[in-house]
Design brief:
Elements lengths: L2 H7 L2 H11 L12 E5 L5 H6 L5 E6 L2 H10 L5 E5 L12 E7 L8 H14 E12 L3 H6 L10 H11 L2 E7 L3 E7 L1
Parallel strand pairs: 1-2, 1-4, 2-3, 4-5
Antiparallel strand pairs: 5-7, 6-7
Helix pairs in contact: 5-7
């Protein structure tokens, strides 16, 4: 992430936006089970919100410095932070009872890698487990905000088909003017 984007993603303003605009559409009301995977926590504001309602959480973060900072902040809690690539996760098949990915998929550089990430999430989820994903919709303002950064927005109209191709079923996608949220069953 560029410096301005990283600062914003760790800010109180973004925390408030998550609570008001993202989380009500994403994991609200979805039973994620006892061992939850978070894909791409970044600075960890979604982690902070979700860890209070789950037994155990594992967060996989590609950026080593972000993973190290979140690991230090979550030390002694119910969160384990793993530095790794979500397109090739170091976890056993069927390990997790639920998974979430909030507002990070647009940072995955290609559609092929996004689809590989979806397939990896399906692989590490137990049968019947839920995956909740959300992201923003493409806009010129967001593209400008991501200057010198990866910006590959996911088209909401393609999400269900792509999740089904990755091994999910019963996919429910909800779109609103700022973004989309999907719940899918493995």
């Amino acid at each position: 992430m560029n410096a301005a984007h990283l600062d914003f993603c760790g800010s109180d303003e973004w925390r408030q936006m998550l609570v008001e605009l993202v989380l009500p559409y994403a994991p609200a009301g979805v039973q994620l089970g006892d061992e939850v995977l978070e894909v791409g926590p970044g600075p960890g504001l979604v982690t902070d919100h979700l860890r209070t309602s789950v037994t155990r959480m594992v967060a996989i973060e590609l950026d080593e410095s972000l993973a190290d900072a979140l690991r230090a902040r979550c030390a002694g809690s119910n969160v384990e932070v793993v530095h790794g690539d979500a397109t090739d996760m170091p976890f056993a098949d069927g390990r997790f009872t639920g998974a979430v990915s909030c507002t990070m998929l647009h940072h995955v550089p290609t559609t092929q890698l996004q689809d590989q990430l979806f397939a990896e999430v399906a692989r590490v989820l137990a049968p019947g487990a839920r995956f909740v994903a959300s992201d923003s919709v493409a806009s010129a303002d967001l593209a400008a905000f991501h200057e010198d950064d990866v910006y590959n927005p996911v088209e909401p109209a393609t999400v269900a088909r792509r999740l089904e191709a990755a091994g999910f079923h019963t996919v429910d996608v909800k779109s609103h003017e700022l973004g989309w949220a999907a719940t899918a069953i493995r």
